[in-house]
Amino acid sequence: MRFGYRRLHILLRREGWKVNHKCVYRLYVQEGLSLRIKRKKKLVSAVRAEVPPPIAPNQVWAMDFVADSLTNGAAFRALTLVDNYSRESLAIEADFSLTGKRVVEVLERVVKRQGKPQVIKCDNGTEFVSTAMDQWAYRAGVKLDFSRPGKPTDNAYIESFNGRLRQECLDVHWFDSIGEAREKIEKWRRDYNQQRPHSALGNQTPEAYKKDWQRTRGPNCGEILPI
User: Fold this and answer.
1) How many CB atoms lie within 10 A of CB 191?
2) Residue 64, strand partner residues
3) pLDDT tens digits, residue range 80-121?
4) CA nearest 160: which of 46, 105, 82, 214?
5) Which ranges in the chain are annotated with CATH 3.30.420.10?
6) How buried is residue 180: exposed, middle or buried, by Cβ count under 10 Å (0-12/13-18/19+)?
7) CB-CB contact of 155 with 146 (8 Å)
8) Rounded Cα gap, residues 57 and 83, in angstroms
9) How many angstroms separate the CA atoms of 119 and 164, rounded?
10) Is the dihedral of CA 48, 53, 59, 62 positive or negative?
11) Are 26 and 55 spatial neighbours (Cβ–Cβ below 8 Å)?
12) Over the stretch 165-201, which tens digit does the pLDDT of each residue have?
C-alpha cells in the first residue's frame, strides 16, 4: 500500500463510508501501514529564475522514461507523457526498444486526440535529441525545453509522476510478458486519471480537474493561452 491515510479517507468517503480522518488514521497506524519516508538533507543552492507554472491544459507537457524488467529478467522501458497543468497521464508506451521515431509516433497519436502543446519538457536523452524528434517539433511548432544535465528538478512534474508509477504499479506487479506489462500499466494509467485523488488538484482527479477548466472557459476552452 502506497497511499497515505488522507487519500484513503477521501476514497472511503467517495464510496459512501461516513468516517472521519481521525478514525482512518488510527486504523492506518494500527495496521502498520504508515510509510517511512526518507528525508533528503536540504542543500544550499544558487538562486535561479522560477519558471511560471502553466495555467491551462496543453500549454506544457513533460516526458521521460522509466525502466523495469519481466519475470525472466528481460529489461523494458516505458515512455511517460504528462500534461503539467491537469497532471493527466496522456500516454505510457512500454516496449523493449523505444527510439526517437517511436516517441514521435506516440506524440502524434496524442496530438491527434487532444491537440498539440506549446512546450514539451524533457531531458537530453538520445531519443529526445534525435533527428526525428527535432524535425517533428519544427514541423509541429512545438518547443522542446531540455533539462539541465544533472537537474531532474527542471522537470519535476514528470519525475513525481514516474515515482508514483513505480510505487503504485511497477513495484507491486510481476510481468510475465510485455503484453501483460502494457495491460497492467494502461489499467493503472486510467485509474490514475479517472479515480485517484490528487492533493495538488484539490483532491480531484486529473480528468475532473480538466473538465472543470473547460467548463469555466466556456466557448473559448480550446484556446491555448501564452505562458
Assistant:
1) 14
2) 80
3) 999 999 999 999 999 999 999 999 999 999 999 999 999 999
4) 82
5) 60-217
6) middle
7) no
8) 7
9) 23
10) positive
11) no
12) 999 999 999 999 999 999 999 999 999 999 988 888 8
Q: Side chain identity at 135, as an amino acid letter?
A: Q
Please state which CATH number belongs to domain 60-217. Answer: 3.30.420.10
Question: The pTM is what?
Answer: 0.76
Please report, for residues 3, 70, 71, the alpha-carbon distance to residue 34 in angstroms, rounded to integers and kept in the order given: 9, 29, 29
